[in-house]
Amino acid sequence: MQDYIHLMIILLILLSMTIFYIRFEKKTINAEEIVLIAMLSAIAAVGRIPFAALPSVQPTSFIIIITAKTFGREVGFLVGNFAALVSNIFLGQGPWTLFQMISWGLMGFTAGMFKEYSFLKAKAGLCT
């Protein structure tokens, strides 16, 4: 059992990503939405490349969070997945790519869940 734990983790990650991809494929979307998701993924991926040498500077995370907050959970998950995959084409693919894809995807999904809560829609501070 101990020998197969890594394989089980990878299969679990692939299964969870496949669920999002199947839900996206079954939706009826038009070409504008697909182009928007592709462009936001490309912007997030290209935003990571110049800052790869600087630790703790992640413009990709900002783009994923704003995208998820604006367009919803599924789009945030997809942009996070594709941004990690595309940016690692330039920075180097490896066994970490799958974990980066699921991490940024879940970050986008979590940020998209906050779109539905009303406490973030209220005005903050004393200036009203």
Outline the structure in words.
The chain is mostly helical. The model has no long low-confidence stretch (mean pLDDT 85). It has one domain (2-120). It has 5 helices and no strands. Helix 2 runs antiparallel to helix 3 (59-71) and helix 2 (31-48) packs across helix 4 (73-91).
Question: What are the defining features of this structure?
Answer:
single chain, 128 residues, mainly alpha, 5 helices, globular
N- to C-terminal separation? 59 Å
Order of helices and strands: HHHHH
Share of residues in strands: under 5%
Count of distinct structural domains: 1
Shape: globular
Average pLDDT, all residues: 85
- Number of extended strands: 0
* Rg calc: 16 Å
Low-confidence sequence ranges: none
Helical segment count: 5
Summarize the main sheet: none
Q: Into which percent range does the helicity of residues fall?
A: over 70%
Broad structural category: mainly alpha
